[in-house]
Specification:
Blueprint (H helix, E strand, L loop, with lengths): L3 E4 L3 H12 L3 E5 L19 H5 L4 E4 L4 H8 L14 E4 L5 H13 L3 E8 L9 E6 L2 H14 E8 L3 H29 L4 H15 L16 H28 L4 H8 L1 H4 L4
Parallel strand pairs: 1-2, 1-3, 3-4, 4-5, 6-7
Antiparallel strand pairs: 5-6
Helix pairs in contact: 3-4, 8-9
């Protein structure tokens, strides 16, 4: 049975620790808050240092917020790498830039420790084994940590070589935050036109399963450059999009609003419809 440890007991790390405790895999946890494990059923008390956790664990999941915090828990006489040994693997759940990931990897490589970048999504359901993991690793290293990932995740997607998991998470974040901007502009239009934003939100949610998500075009397998039927489908979508967003710009102008996301989408209509 894998001996897993979790560093950082916030929303993600706390939920991961709970799942691993239920699976019988959790050996130790660490957090800067000594009381962080209180109320987490089956989760052991916080260890005194990251090094104390590392002494007891073969797979260590780091669920802090930033690259700086990751480096802090890795380095120094009380850090994880002070207890490095062959066969130890670190799974980074924190979202960091690829430059920061390379800096972290330089440190783990020097210590002879494996590093797996693992972007996660589905945080609100983390305590119910609801995370989806996007993993960057070679096949052999992934095989070593796979039982631990399966112990807390709903699904594990091997996105590619080291770095691919973090790149996938960053790409996923573009969708999330871009959609927030779309929601903001739609809300501004609705509010100015006297439409209830709460009702609009309910309409969007109730129709989301039939309308399609933000990857409904880019995720299509057919290539419009070689498939005439696919080219017609995408051109039909582009024509409809331009018509509808022209109406949105006209309404925005009438209401005295600027809609930069709408303007950008119209300027890049062929790219957005997957024709460029």
């Amino acid at each position: 049975m894998a001996r897993a440890g979790v560093v950082g007991l916030g929303m993600i790390g706390g939920g991961v620790a709970l799942c691993l405790a239920r699976a019988g895999m959790l050996e130790a946890v660490y957090d800067v808050r000594a009381e962080a494990a209180e109320g987490l059923e089956g989760v052991p008390p916080v260890t005194a240092t990251p090094a104390a956790l590392a002494e007891r664990c073969d797979t260590i999941l780091i669920a802090v917020v930033s690259a700086e915090q990751t480096i802090d828990v890795l380095g120094g006489p009380d850090g994880i790498l002070a207890r490095s040994r062959p066969g130890m693997n670190i799974v980074l759940l924190a979202t960091v830039s690829l430059d920061d990931l390379e800096e972290i990897r330089t440190r783990t490589n020097a210590a002879g420790v494996g590093l797996i970048d693992c972007g996660v999504t589905g945080g609100p359901r983390v305590r119910e084994n609801g995370l989806v993991c996007m993993v960057g690793a070679d096949d052999a290293t992934l095989a070593q940590v796979r039982p631990v990932l399966d112990g807390f995740a709903r699904s594990v997607e091997h996105m590619g070589a080291p770095g691919a998991g973090m790149a996938a998470k960053i790409a996923r974040n573009i969708i999330v935050y871009g959609c927030l901007r779309a929601g903001y502009e739609a809300s501004e239009v609705a509010r100015a036109a006297g439409v209830s934003v709460a009702q609009l939100a309910r309409v969007v949610e109730s129709s989301s399963d039939s309308v399609g998500g933000p990857m409904m075009v880019m995720g299509r397998p057919a290539d419009p450059r070689s498939d005439p039927a696919e080219a017609r489908t995408r051109e039909g979508l582009r024509s409809l999009m331009v018509k509808d967003l022209d109406a949105a710009l006209a309404l925005g102008e009438r209401l005295g609003l600027t809609l930069p996301l709408v303007e950008l989408t119209l300027r890049t209509d062929r790219e957005v419809s997957g024709q460029a």
